[in-house]
């Protein structure tokens, strides 16, 4: 699978088969994450692979924490690309039955600009991780909802104070691949502005210049 295929085929998967994921696959995926670009080459990321009873505990706790928040959601039926409230609650309870959850951490220390740069770098690692998993036929879902439960996650996974949780993702073979949510402006008539005078780009000066 080439890079463009992986980019287009990656979906946020929320239901997984119980089939195990190999340690080699996890290492290959984390290696791809480790090759992300990083501000000042700080490579400020770390990963935790959670499985078994620890994953079950994470799910039970996330379900309890997320339940009151879900009451604020419109209870739309599952439309093939996003889950109903009940469907999301089931997903939360065991991370969609995924055999593994990968947690991405970054450094928590440093002045705010440095911390922002570290979060950005760790997000680049996260995206590499998702794309590598897609290339191996595995499903993922970038999740920050569980950060509502960070105190519990920190205790359960022994995450020290000098680390911030950036995001986590379940990892496993998809049981259901959701429909791709429509992209806003898929023809890219609004999302890009061309500034400059190369004729092949059809560029113009920005207003007021
Ligand atoms: C920063 C970030 C946080 C997200 N948090 C969650 C989450 O907590 N739970 C969830 O189910 N999906 C979460 N998602 C996934 C988005 O819902 C999903 O990417 C979006 O609906 C587009 O669908 P696609 O990933 O299949 O293209 C998150 C995505 C990003 C980038």
What does this structure look like?
By secondary structure, the chain is α+β, with helices and mostly antiparallel strands. It has a single domain, classed as NADH Oxidase (3-Layer(aba) Sandwich), CATH 3.40.109.10. Helices cover 38% and strands 15% of the residues. It contains 6 helices and 6 strands; from the N terminus they run αβαβααβαβαββ. A 4-stranded antiparallel β-sheet has the order 2-3-5-4. Helix 2 crosses helix 5. The longest helix is centred in the middle third of the chain and has 24 residues. The N and C termini lie far apart (44 Å). It binds flavin mononucleotide (FMN). The site of flavin mononucleotide has 11 residues, from loops.
Question: Can you give keywords for this protein?
Answer:
209 residues, alpha+beta, NADH Oxidase, 4-stranded antiparallel beta sheet, two-stranded antiparallel ribbon, 6 helices, binds flavin mononucleotide
